[in-house]
Amino acid sequence: MGLETKCRAKVADGLGSVREADATVLLETDELIVRGEARIKVPRASIKKVTTRAGVLTVSAPPATIALTLGVEAAAKWKTKIEEPPKRLIDKLDVKPGAKVWLFDVDDETLITQLAERTDRTSTGSSASGCDVVFVDVNSAKELSRISKAIDATHDSGAVWVIHRKGPTGVADTTIFEEAKALGLVYTKVARVSERDTAEKLVRPRVRSIR
Description:
Elements: E1 3-13, E2 18-27, E3 31-35, E4 40-43, E5 49-53, E6 56-61, E7 64-69, H1 72-83, H2 89-92, E8 101-104, H3 109-118, E9 122-123, E10 131-137, H4 146-152, E11 154-165, H5 173-182, E12 186-192, E13 197-203
């Protein structure tokens, strides 16, 4: 996951315009996002320089120079995080080498490509069993029943990633959590899949041994 904070943001673009306002700032896999009156999105790949001084983090990129008043400790943390190479999708999704994986009606090209690099045990048929990981696409309330089929396709310690559209057109994460609870599953992680999709990781609860 990335970072999120509320702070004072100052954005100076290449046209001489300067906007300053209280903002919500997010560092995602591919973008630095400033929301509010000083709104801007900067691709992480375009960031040329990151500096800190007296608690202010300054990010320089071709679209703009962004100054975030974060405080000394937080500014140092954000600088380190921005300068880190973004984690690959396959690693965010916890897929181990050689894992048995089922893609249940999933069409994300990046995920499919990276899975092929990580394991040769990926199937795309209408059913599966004994899987380490199942990725299932859920894009309407009618498709929530797919979650039950997906968890049934895993072994006891397997995981299901429910992929769905972001925003008002997709299935809300709260709806997915309700379905998971009804099935006796627990939510453990969220990950950005693409500009369009996000995903929640569901697993069976661990059974504590009694000694």
